[in-house]
Design goal:
The chain is about 10% helix and about 40% strand. It is mainly beta. The strands form nine sheets. It has a 22-stranded antiparallel beta barrel. A hairpin with a 2-residue loop joins β5 (about 135-140) and β6.
Amino acid sequence: MVRRILIRSLLATGCATLALTASHAAAQIGVPTPENPTPAAAEAIAEAQTETAPPPADEILITGSRIARQDYAANSPIVSLSQDTIQNTGRVTVESALTQMPQFAGAFGAANGGSTSTGLNGGQAYASLRGLGSKRTLLLLDGRRIQPSNPDGSVDLNIIPDALIENIEVITGGASTTYGSDATAGVVNFRLRRNFKGLEIGGQTGVSDYGDGNSYRLTGTVGGAFDEGRGHAVISVDYTKRQRALQNERSYYTARQTTPGLSTIPQGTVLFGANLPSLAVVNSIFQGQYGTAALPGNAAGRYTGQIGFNTDQTLFSAVGVPVLNFRDPQTDEAYIVNSGTNSQQVNFGFNGSSLQANLSRYNVFGKIDYDVTDTIKAFVQFGYTSYTSLGITNPTLASNVYGLTVPVTNPFIPAAFRQVLASRPTPGGAFTFYKALNILGPRYQSYDYDVYQITTGLSGKVGIRDWTWDLYGSVSKAKFVNAQTGGASASATARLLNSPTGGTDLCAGGFNPFGNVTPSQACIDYISRRTVNSNELKQRTVEGNVQGGLFGLPAGEVRFAAGADYRFNGYGFTPDAALAQPDGTSDILGYSVLRPASGSVDTGEVYAELLVPLLHDIPLIQQFDLDLGYRYSHYNTVGGVHTYKADASWTVFEGLRLRGGYNRAIRTPSVGELFAPVSTGSVAIGTASATTTNGDPCDTRSSYRRGSAATQVRALCLAQGVPTGIIDSYQLGTAQVFALTGGNPELQEETADTYSIGGVIQSPIEAAMFKNMSLSVDAYQIKIGDAVGPLSIAQAFQFCFNSGGNNPNYSTTNYYCSLITRNTASGVPINPLQPLLNLGTFKVRGIDVQFDWRFGLDSLGLGVDAGKIALNAAVSYTDQFKIQALPGAPTYDYAGSIGTGVETTAGTSHPRWKSITSLTYTLGGASLGMRWRYISAMKASARVVSLTSTTRGVDKYNVFDLNARFEAGETTEFRLGVTNLFNKAPPQVGDIEGTFDAQNYDVIGRYFFLGATKRF
């Protein structure tokens, strides 16, 4: 508490001090216009206005086009983010700046605090334009492809050299004609500072209001000319450290829910399946020995609940019946909740989860440019990133497919429970045992990445008109090592459970699983395992381009660009031997089954682009240009594919420009989607309730079992394998299943048709206060066919049982039902399939609005030294977000909802309205700014499919940030700020307490940051 007060006081005092000195005009988010060009364009224009104008090779290249030109007007909607915008997020990684933009959905990133699955993306951060996923958002570095860090083709934002970013340009819509595959949702181009000179040192630190989530960053950049100005070199070094932010420090998180969740607890519980014990025997123990009330059973006189074990070796009842005789103290790991009428269970909880994963990152980037001759230039650049992130999650839960099997000969079975076992129809049969193995501690997954990329090339003049050429090659590799601890050996655990001595012959004291009993360290070591998996991705690229003017027309010069490239992407995954047993199983409880995999994709492409000025200086048409493009790509996997575009730009008069176009884009299956290893992973399906479509539909608590089609649902459950003896008492007892997924070499390319239309208007008012106003409005539509993705297993359960009318006959042969297999003894789903397929279609449609206004206070008569005001607002409206899971299946519009995405890492929030607005006051070398982030209310996506669902949505969300800057002389700048100034809590997502969308909402709370930059 003292520490928190000191932090608040120190940083609040700093904010107040800088507020009094007021403001530096920091660019925030902008639409490039003649009065507000991108930094790269502004620099090029400034150079062009000097006596030594750059040669044509230095003309401005616009993101989304290969043609260099004197202007910088993009025909596609483009938004530019400055370095100041990134810094004002208060975070030390670039993902926050992108996620907060209205064009982006919150995607996989810093909030990935831990996973029970063996993913190949732990610790990474992605950009998801329009919520269509990182693999459909092409990331570029100065217009060139970056080494993917994930087999699905996604680029990790953590490998971007943040310290050298000048600005980020974002274009919505397909750009495959310009850049090739993957640019179906759009392009994010990180443009680096050019011709850096001198030495710059920077640092930043931050901490949350709760005293955690600390971040530190140190950067150093040095650059300059050599060989009498013929060459230029720059090198930048960046060290970043980000620490965990903890859930249990925040009141809006809770480790104890009031609704049923996981019921696998440290005490251990027994599932009897179809081999049910005698109710009379069970009650003779509970009533006769423990003095409890009588427990209920079925009509056949059998007990249908579960039996758990107190640490004193007495029994308690659970799941589907009242919890009686639970003697252990209730803790976050084991506490009682109501689960229905006359039904309770003991929930499992974990209070050690992270809201923000830790990160330790080193990044080095260097580039050398050299004028070989007056007409030929050469460059070489290299980038290297090494970072480590640690994911932490709950202890191994031996349940579901990881449930243990215990023989009746185990010597540690309590005497009272032996009576229960003996009363079963098959008294000598082994029993299924669920237990949280908290004795092993939490599960830790470390993610170690080493990524490098070396690019070298030449450029020059062709000697024809102003034609220029360039040729470059790039080699890169991403190496990933994933170490896992906290898992248990299934075979070692089985040996202990089946040992006639209880395991005393294998480790000191043996292993008593009944009750929350801690065995000897020797026994813990005997079952504990550490596993290591490795993944390697390689990319090789060669590309050549030529561009220039062809001939003149009355409306201007016809210009072109043409080129060809070759690209190789290779992939190899090696799992730990314990996770890839020869029989296709895993020996590790708590981590995924994995298989080794490898593969490669070769791509050859040719393209051409033509800029045709059609009309000039006629009424209502100052300039009308047409930009046409075509690309042919051949892949060794899907064969030949074609992409093309037609964009138009219409300058009506000075200050009003209209733009729009059509793009046919493609995305071919990535090397990972084709060849990824078959593995299992934990997938949340929710907990069954009478008012939602969550959970297992066969669960007696579900809306399916209690709805108008209860008879058909019951029959389908029986047909799937739920035993007759427990069909009317079946409860899953968990909110997750372990789905089986993997690559599919039969996948075909996705196709996307994207449309955009809009315009930019500059203020026609000459008055000083209003002349620097601009407004852009752009409408877009992206329709993706044959979309590659996993079929959501949660939706497979819902659709199998006719949610949304997807199985009206309740047929077992329905496609969705074919993905579900059950244990015929317990009814529990066993590794349901989550296949990677060419699915149906995704269709996203909306409107972006951008407003910029800058004026000096002298225009209000306050004097020339009164300072300046800058107002900026970026607003996005989502009209449609349609998903069709399979061809011919119903199409659902998820616009304005939360909970369903095209894939889990793409973001599941689709608000109608999302905006970010900044107001900045500038006075000399100081500034004070306020940002307002807004997300509109959303309904639960379950209500899109089922109108009767009562799953809760989220309320509208308003968050305010404060930032300030102060220049101390010409070479030193200080900055500080507070994000989430009023400590706004995130809205709960769904009906389970403590569930939040950490990718879209601020779950860390109020956050203070302080930074400085020194130039020499």
